[in-house]
UniProtKB/TrEMBL annotation, chain A:
This is Pyruvate synthase subunit PorA. Pfam families: PFOR_II, POR_N. PANTHER family: PYRUVATE-FLAVODOXIN OXIDOREDUCTASE-RELATED. Heterotetramer of one alpha, one beta, one delta and one gamma chain. It comes from Pyrococcus yayanosii (strain CH1 / JCM 16557). GO terms for biological process: response to oxidative stress. It comes from the Archaea.
TrEMBL record, chain B:
SUPFAM superfamilies: 4Fe-4S ferredoxins. Gene3D superfamilies: 3.30.70.20. Residues 44-73, 74-103 form the 4Fe-4S ferredoxin-type domain. InterPro entries: 4Fe4S_Fe-S-bd, 4Fe4S_Fe_S_CS, PorD_KorD, Pyruvate_synthase_PorD. This is Pyruvate synthase subunit PorD. PROSITE patterns: 4FE4S_FER_1, 4FE4S_FER_2. Its cofactor is [4Fe-4S] cluster. Transmembrane segments: none annotated. Keywords: 4Fe-4S, Electron transport, Iron, Iron-sulfur, Metal-binding, Repeat, Transport. Heterotetramer of one alpha, one beta, one delta and one gamma chain. GO terms for molecular function: 4 iron, 4 sulfur cluster binding; metal ion binding; oxidoreductase activity, acting on the aldehyde or oxo group of donors, iron-sulfur protein as acceptor. Pfam families: Fer4_21.
Amino acid sequence: MPIRKVMKANEAAAWAAKLAKPKVIAAFPITPSTLVPEKISEFVANGELDAEFIKVESEHSAISACVGAAAAGVRTFTATASQGLALMHEILFIAAGMRLPIVMAIGNRALSAPINIWNDWQDTISQRDTGWIQFYAENNQEALDLILIAYKVAEDERVLLPAMVGFDAFILTHTVEPVEIPDQEVVDEFLGEYEPKHAYLDPARPITQGTLAFPAHYMEARYKVWEAMERAKEVIDEAFAEFEKRFGRKYQKIEEYRTDDAEMIFVTMGSLAGTLKEWVDKKREEGYKVGAAKITVYRPFPVEEIKALAKKTKVLAFIEKNITIGLYGAVFTDASATLINEKEKPLMLDFIAGLGGRDVTFEQLDEAFSITRRALEEGKVEKPINWIGLRKEIL
Amino acid sequence: MAESPFKADIERAQRELTEKMTPGAIVYIPGSSVINKTGSWRVFRPEFHRDKCVRCYLCYIYCPEPSIYLDDEGYPVFDYDYCKGCGICANECPAKAIEMVREVK
């Protein structure tokens, strides 16, 4: 029987890693993710997890050790956040290019400067082009579940790409919630024993990994990474379906809430989805046809699901905790590109919110609502990007 | 004339290796880099003057590739398929028996 424990998302991530039985964990402590490797090191020290726990001198080394271990043919795990993830940047491309199914937990945190340890998604969003699959968890249970699903997808022969699972700093990493820990046997059945088919170290079958590719071959290697990420869309749906069958919890690339007759749909990711759904209930009580949608899978971008969402509504508004300096938020930009060739598309708005751990309140959502409603009434968008909850008085 | 020690590898690699891109650009045929003839990178070519050679083997020892083999009499043989023309052999040769000559194409 699965047991329920009250725990932080960091502990849930450590539990997920324990259940997945990685052979190598290499990690470097960083706020707000430190507890993830700390808890795992406890599991290893107690003999509850049979794995090598490598204490490294930086995040660059942590992910490099995971690349080496994964290339040698074992399941690996690491965790980081913010500056640590940024320090891993160059190796993230290498992990994806070498097609190593490493899984990493991220406590989504803002990037310096100014130094800020609190939540936004700038760290993972900034890694969107590296070839890593990206999941975003709404709560602690999702943090655990999505890590297991991440292994399932990453290790699928049709995919073979690394995956990261993000959960919001402090809002989830340091907040306790009841989390169901699945049975080890069921997880074992779900994930299976890791059998490397492409990346391994075996003197009897020598191979060369991490090769040099001249202009005559590089593009094809990159194309295959892109193609694998496209294939991941289908594999993720299959993994979600199998997860639901075995564990009873349903996941979708985009989860919709009260969208069927919605004139305005607000889209977000991570823990903000919880706030948003409650706010939608309030708006519905006030008589507005408002819906919410949560993006669980950001890479590969859920193109078809965004198109389906767009067909349902007159205005699609994105509330996102990141900003591409020089343009808009990344989610809005990606969704806009997705819809560019559609004959009929909704008006689209982007709201930048909650950067560096600022709470996104109902008042701020109401601010977004009034701008969205005006666009709906006027049938046009004056300004696609708006920062909400901005303290204009100190600017 | 000494034979390339890579001959068997070259033949095997040419037989087994395909250009088909694998996941992660992994190469499954060991030693297959021998079919990549790096001699085409060369700008200067070592010209060997047998009459000056004292058979000290320094060129053979210092060649980083290695693309210098020894024939039955102990004279060096240059493998122009892989020699990149680095000039180390000419630099090390105490008898000045190796001359670096610009490649003309």
